[in-house]
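As noted in the main text, all predictions were made from sequence alone. Below is one such record, for Response regulator transcription factor.
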Amino acid sequence: MHIGILEDDPLQRRFITTSLKDWGDEDTRVDAFERASELLAALQKQTFDLLIIDWYLPDADGMHLVQRLRQDFGWTSPILFITASQGENDVVMALECGADDFLTKPIRPAELRARLSALARRADINKGMVAENLSFGPYTLAPSSHSILLNGQAIPLTSREYDLAALFLSHIGQLFSREHILEIIWGISADITTRTIDTHLSRLRKKLAFGGQYGLRLKSVYQYGYRLEPVS
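Prediction:
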């Protein structure tokens, strides 16, 4: 599990990181950031299973940042919001803007770990890639047979094309940067250009009719990446 922490106070940042040192499994990794711009830059190159975001930041408002992650980036993974404010209205505002849970300072390590465990269970993070068939309209993702069906017919795909299709069908609406796709599908050290990603996705768009005619459109977001979005 990979956790991202956005907290501008160095003492709080160190405290939260230390509190999570022995939490989760042996593969749990924690990266901490001081500024919103640093987190946004990291999101273009790597993936996180959970985010912990402070309300007051030097270069952004925490609530607006959460809204941006949800609406513009299509972020679906859990977000825990932390703040010194204990007002009920603030809690409501944080949840309405897209946070999954809310924790007030001073942070208690045991409560922090308990809330993160609950969020992880809710999101089923530890289950990993979807194991059962996943359907959206005429599309069916069938992991057991490593295939994608359109109107009940298996579409011939290469292994790489299947991995790309499975990624987007499992995260409909989420925006992926080219660097993020490169990390997930090819491996972060792969010797490949982002143009190759564009070529693969162009072929995938044709093979799976991701042009919107069957309810899903693979959209290119200028200078960023791709998102598979529903079409009404």
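The chain has two domains: 2-127, 134-230. The chain has a mean pLDDT of 85. These features were considered when defining construct boundaries for the mutagenesis experiments described in Section 2.9.
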